[in-house]
Structure prediction request, 178 residues.
Amino acid sequence: MAKFADERYEAALSDLRKAKKLAPRSSAVRELLGLSAYRSGRWEEALREVRAFRRIAGDLTHMPVEMDCLRALGRSEDVAKTWQRMKGHDVPAAVGNEARVVYASFLLDEGRPRDAWSVTKPGRLVASPGPGELRRWYVAARAALEAGDPDAAARIVAALDAHDVDFEGVDELRSSLS
Prediction:
């Protein structure tokens, strides 16, 4: 799907909705429709479609997207339930890191920085982290700072700086540490 590949998610929605009518059991269609809706901020539709993808494909890859949709919809109990359900499965590291990022961000929103820290704290800051690990480190640094541990936050920010990350909010985090 060219529109999806070009990151024109809103434009892709119309074509994907038509494709869904033609092939409602297609996991690929449901996946792209869910992700396009997610990227367009259409939380209810995104949640419905990524859940349909999970049921059809038996694939847990987008459970972090489910959690983020639930978070955006203000469904706190369901975010926690989805996190608990996901923890019970063996998922690839990238999916696990993304789930930790979403859940810890939810916990920070809820004013629970110590819990967010326990979800995201890195065991060690590896030399060649992937993008998901870097996002996890960022949220861990935020959690450490909000939990009252600026030294841990500073160590993590220094590790992020060594990898030239440019996440939204990193500059604000650096400023808070100064």
Q: What stands out?
A: The domain at 1-91 is CATH 1.25.40.10 (Serine Threonine Protein Phosphatase 5, Tetratricopeptide repeat). The chain has a mean pLDDT of 93. The CA atoms of residues 83 and 103 lie 7 Å apart. The radius of gyration is 18 Å.
